[in-house]
Amino acid sequence: MRILLAEDEMIERKAMVKFLQENFQDMEVVGEAANGRMAVELAVEKQPDIMFVDIQMPGLNGLEAIEKIQAHNPAIRFILVSAYDSFAYAKEAMRFGIKDYILKPGRKEEIVKTLLRVAKEIKAEREHHAQEEALLKEQLLMKMMQQPIAQDDVRLQKQCFPDMKSAAFFVIKATSSITEVEQELSDLLACEIILFEQQHAWIMGAISDKLLEKSVLLRAAKQLQEAKPGLFIGISEPCTSLQKMPDAYQEAYAACMQLEGADGRHYGFYQAEQKAIPNQRLVEQITSHIEAGNATEAVLFFKKNNKVLSDGEREDLYIQVKQLLTKYDTPLPQGSFTTLKTEDAWQRFIHLCCVQMGEYLSSRQTIMRVKAYVQEHFRDPITLEEVAGVVQLSPNYLSNLFKQEVGETFIDYVTHVRLEKAKELLKNNAYTLKEISFMIGYKDPNYFSRVFKKHCDLSPTQYQRQICK
């Protein structure tokens, strides 16, 4: 911590300097001011963390000096020193957000306690700020991975990465955390590293104030692979334009996927396929990526092969994608084939189609989990709220999603499962109606009989007689 003293009485000032130097070795007295004006000048020049300021000083008094200093640097924390226990001074100090106040002559214990508390608060504030800044950078990088950033985000980028000259992405498949090598990689690349986990892979953004070189990126990947054997590390080409950041991420992702399917190589850049693929197969592969909801692979594959596709083949691609989404009752992005005139328009179209399919697949997976849960717990008094908690959705959203995907309400589905099981038990003719009622989740046999008759047009007994004839 850097400390500045503003005290007009030299003996007291020197005594305070000596006291601080003897008792706070981790703190540095960076300046001494004999009056308010000098305090302002030194505060601007030295940028201290903490200032001891005497209220009564010639020229500018302590509070007037603080007002000017705060205009330059509002982060400085002030500890007021006064020979007078004045409520007026204390009230005025509160106007500047100052809570720390020492009366002359200050007891050593009081000074130590106050200074330690202020230093602890500064440290906590800095840690909180660092966490917020790291989260902001991570969120910004995630945006930059997906699409060219908007004008508002450009301003945010300049705030988060003011000296950025180039950047690159690493996409890393690992079975355990790699955070312990983050600082080592930052030192090797001589740049800022943003590292986070997403979708079973580690994403590492390297933000540099210089032009990154491919050889340096390869060396960093090699070092990481040697430190953590078994990794697959896809690397992007260095990029200098914010608009190219999504492409860079897609390259790194595709490289990682390529490495997982290769023999021998564990790190490197994306390598385009050398063998020519018939154009109809290209269309089918793009459609296949869309059907799987793989936006990164679909867009990257289209970009690599777009130039060899004829207008007729692109139209065929559009028709196949339209049929695909219709098959899954998934809406097509707005627009028509005639609006897809540029490569960027096609990339946006393919990306949106993948997003639509991804949402469909996610919904289908959720419904499968719900059905599996019901099949496993139909004997228990399960509720929509309980199952919604299991799949981490709100009950209302799950209710609407279930009806939309299955065609019946959640309650109707649970009832259907229970009654089908009841029919099996009735066929066995080994249990009483009361036992069957309990076995399928109904605690009231009479209620079970009413539900059964409502849905099957026969009472359980009538159904059993009919089946067992």
UniProtKB/TrEMBL annotation:
GO biological process: phosphorelay signal transduction system
Family annotation (InterPro entries): CheY-like_superfamily (IPR011006), Homeodomain-like_sf (IPR009057), HTH_AraC (IPR018060), HTH_AraC-typ_CS (IPR018062), Sig_transdc_resp-reg_receiver (IPR001789), Tscrpt_reg_AraC-type_HTH (IPR020449)
Domain of life: Bacteria
Modified residues (4-aspartylphosphate): D54
Gene3D superfamilies hit by this protein: 3.40.50.2300, Homeodomain-like (1.10.10.60)
Residues annotated as transmembrane: none
An annotated Gene Ontology molecular function: sequence-specific DNA binding
HTH araC/xylS-type domain sequence ranges: 368-466
Pfam families, A to Z: HTH_18, Response_reg
Keywords: DNA-binding, Phosphoprotein, Transcription, Transcription regulation
Record domain Response regulatory: where: 2-119
Protein name, per record: HTH-type transcriptional regulator YesS
Species name: Oceanobacillus picturae
